[in-house]
Each structure stands twice: as structure tokens, then as C-alpha cells.
Amino acid sequence: MTKRGASDDELSAQVGDAGLVRHVFDQMPSILAAVEGPELRIVAATGLYRSWTGRPDVVGTLVRDAFAEVIGQQLFQVFERVYATGESESQRDFRLQFDLPETGEQAEFFVDFSVTPLAGTGEERTGVIVSVADVTERVRERQAAQQRASAAEQRYAQARDMIDSLQRELLPPGVPVLPRVQVAASYLLANAEDSAGGDWFDSLVLPDGRVALVVGDVVGHGVTASATMGQLRVLLHERLATEPDIAAALNGLNAAAHRLRGAQATTVCVVTLDPRTGALEYCTAGHPPPLVLSPSTGNGRYLVPSGAGPIGVGGEFTVATVMNDHIVEGEVVLLYTDGILERPGRELAQSTVELVQASADVAADRALRDDAASTAERVCTQTLELLVRITGHRDDITLLAGQLVPPAPEQVWTIEAVPESLPPFHQQLNEWLTSARITGDDGDALRQAAIELLTNSIEHAYVDSADANEVTVTAVVTDAGHARVQVTDQGRWRPPSPSDDRGLGLQLTEHLVDSLHVDHGERGTTATATLLLHQPARLLSTGDLPWLTPQRPAVRTGPLLVRDDPSAPGPRLRVEGAVDAATVSEVSRGVRTLGSTGMRSLTVDLSGVTHLASAGVAALHRLTALHHGNGSELRLYAPTGTNADMILTLVNVPHHTIDPDLAADQPRLG
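User: That's the sequence. What structure does it adopt?
Assistant: C-alpha cells below.
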């Protein structure tokens, strides 16, 4: 090591001839420079430094003059700190931009550099030494790899969304709503790259009144397995719908499997349940056997496997491969796929025991409390939660449950034909819909249709009669899974004459139900609306597991509230509750008062409206025209998915789906 303060002769003796040392320094394969003094003057630079920076005559210049374009890049501050403190500093992947004098172009580099103190002949610091390594290529390669990974992640996310969407399209959107059998289903996608799977479920009412429950599993994963699953599901559904014999239907599926790619070795479990007797017929074609759960005892039992092999492997389905059993009222039959058994860290025997224990506890309501869900729904969601939240899952999991329940009775109301009868009927109808387990969009549609038909009779049937008269409303869920609402009066038929503000009730009802039949004669009119019912199935991915899924809010049935909002930026009226023939005058009065009878613009917030009858639609038509005629605007606000949005969209009434008082440019429907 060279001693500080050594003479030139001593230095030459230690490190070699000065001329040779300068020559070696200049030839070093390092980007190296030395600067001196607080003004940071460059006093030495290797040849590679000079060529790399494009400045062959840089020695003797101040750093800030030689690289003026770098001043704002926080580089010179590092030199100054090291010179001032004597403590070395270094940086990695430091992005640096400077001009190349020969071309006039700005070059960008990534460098690793270190700055160390430079001592003079004494103890004092005279400057700093800067050592640079050009790592631009390394950083660019890493950035490119990151971009490729990001692009791959984006493609994966897009593919996953496509796969999830494909799976949801190929599976049935829901299960039937029946008077004697409560059906529920959950489907949890595998958390894997090729997450599309071959699991499927199905449920349908057979021509002889029995209910068929089906769960199947195609070998493999990916889009091919998913596409095969979709074809097999439809084939088996059609076979059972036209020929409700399990063996015959499976033989038909067996024959088709030889023509479908990837269909061989598909496992299927088919169960038929007679709602009147509780009799079960079933076949486990290579599939795990169903479970029977008893909520009253808290016990569960596996049915005996039928002994049949999977689809497409050469076996034939006969009477001998179809087994019989029986359940009583309240009991649940549960079908499932092997994804619930083949969970990480579990042997098959252990998983089999865990499944029957967990599902029996859920059926007996001694696991997690969920009063809003039926027993069948709890079994299909809580069983997933209890088992999967601990172990995770590798494969798709499908659960399909059917519970034998007492039939929902036919409901008959005799109602006085006056508008004041509508609010109490609305409450009674909601209670019946709940008891019949009709929820979601089906419940909204039936509620709207029944009110419209009743309102139509109240307003038109007895217009020429001075006596108080009655209307009879009948509601029932048929064994085939149809809801039928019938409204009968003894008045005189008056042909509808649609206009902007009248005759909308029958039009709305036709949009909302599958069929509407009006029979009228001298003794009165009967209007019958029919709707095929479905209960949505839980089609889930890991991101929306059932215990994280919010429940649908209950339908509010309180009194109508019409109030202004003094905190709004302008005149604003909020309407909450049912707007029908009995309450529409209150809404009209509120709009006219706050809008000064159409002279000033007004926002009407309909987000809290639970029922918007044709009488309300007609009133909004008239009020909108009133404001328009006076040069003002009546802004109707009905968020997407609300009852008011559904009805206003059906009848093409312009309205805002985003609050017009919160943003300037709003989507407007109509």
C-alpha cells in the first residue's frame, strides 16, 4: 500500500514509472474519473470514461460545465456529500441522461456507481473518485422481462375471465323453484391456471312430476373439458326431459360419448325424487354416492353405490344399475363432485368422514347461523366454507341439494275494489312470495304483475257500478315450477286504449311474465299471468366465495315517504316505498309543490321506490311533459338494477342511472 506524503521517487518505486502508470490508467477497462476541489473539477479520466461520455477533452473542466444537462438529476449532490463528509456512497440501477456532443442526441443509461473520497499528500480530502459500471443492458433485459410477465399476467387475467364466463354460460343459470322440493346449488371453480373444469350440475322436473338432480364430472380441465361438459349436460337434460328413465337416459349419453372428444370416463350421478312419496331412484355412474342428511336428527348417511361404471367405457346401464331409496319430509339429498373430497392434505377416508359430518351439522343448523337461507342453501354454501377455508381446494367443487318440504299452499285473497286496498295487498303478497321461496328477479316480476292486474280491475271493472265490488286474486306455484297469479272480477270488460299515460298495466305485465291470458265475458274478466321460476345458483371463483357474498337486501314494505332534500345543490325530491294507484297522488303533489308546478327544474330520486306501478309511470309521464312545456327539466334518477330502473326501461321513459346532482355528464336511458 502506498504511504501518504511519499515523494515522487518513492511513489515511482512503489507503483512503477509515472508515464507507464498513466498509460495503464488510460487503458483500464473501467469508467473511472477523479474530481478535485469543492467546485468538482475533473482531473483524471480513463479512456473508457471519455469515450463512454463522448467527451474526449473532459479533463480540466468542471463537472457542472461538462454535463450541464445532468444538473437536475441529483448526481452532483452525491459528489458534494462525499467530498464534504468523507463517507463513500453508491447507487444501483441509477437512471442517467446526458447529451452526446458528436450526435447531439440525448442518451439514457442505467449505471451502478460508487463515489469514494480522494486524499491528497496529507490527511486532507482533495476530491472524490467516481467509478461507473454501465448496466443498461441488464436493466433493459429486466424491464423487458417484467413487461413480458405483466403482459402474461394480463393475458392470464383475460383468459381467466373468459374461462369463468364460459363456465357460467355452459352451466344452468339456476335451479327450479318448486312447491314440494327446495333445490339449491353451488359451483366453486378451481384456483388453477386452466381453471375451466368439467364439473356440472342440473335439475329439472320430469314429465311424470318427479324431480331429477344431476351432477357430473368430465375428466381433465381447460376449455376442452368445459366444452365437453356443456354438450353432455344438454344431452342428458334432453334425454331425461323426454324419456324419464335413468338407465335409458344414461345409455343415450353413453352412445354420444363415443362421438364427443374427451367424454370417455365421465362420471355422473343422477337422482330422481318423487315429491309426493319421497321415493328415490339413482345411479352412480363411476361417481361418489349421494348423501342423505336429516336436519331433525343431525345425522347423515351415504347411499349405497349403484355399481355402474363411468360414461363411455363400454358398460351398459340396466335396471340392475339403478338403486332405490327413500327420504322423508325435511330430509336433504346432497350430490357433489370429488373436488370436495380431494382437498389438499386430506386422505380420501378422512375427507369422506369430514363431508358427512360438516354437511349434517349445517343441515341441522348447528354450524353457522344464517336465518335468511333455506336448509338446502345452507348445505350448499356453509359446507363449502367449513371444509375449504382450512385446506383450500385444487379441483372444481359442485354441490347440489334437494330437500323435501311441505308444499306452499295456494293463496286466495278477496279484495275490495278500491285503491286503498293496494297497500295491504302489497304486504300480503310479499309474505306469500317469501313463504313460496320466490325471490330475486322472479319475485320482483310477480309482485309487479300482480299489482298491475289488480290495479287494472280496480280502476276499470266497476267504473259503471255504484256498489262496492270485489276482486279475487289467486296465487300458486305449480308442481312444474310455474308461478300462476290470477285476478278475477265480475265487472264489465273495457278494451285497453294505450297512450302515453294510460293502458300501461297490461303492457308492463306482458313484459314481466312468460305468458298473460285475459278471458273476459258477461260475468267478468279473469287475467292469468304465468312465470317459470328459477332460484339463482352460486357460481363462484376464489375471489367471491359464498361467505363473502352479500345477501340480497330484503324488500322494504313500509309506508310511502315523499320528502325534499335541503342539502342537495338544487330542488330535489326523494320517494321511498310503493308508488301505485293509492299513493301516486302524494308523489304528484310533492313534485308539483317543489317544482312550483313545473316552472323550475327538479330531481326526483326514485332509488328507494320498491314498486312503481303503471299509475306512477303515467304520473311521471304527465309531470315530465309539464316541466318540458314550461322550459324546465324533471330529472328522474333510478340507479341501475332498482325497481324503478327496470320499469322505466321497459316503458322507455328517459331517466338517469347515475345521480345527476353529483356529476355533469350522466348516462341517460330511454
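Residues 49 and 153 are 41 Å apart (CA to CA).
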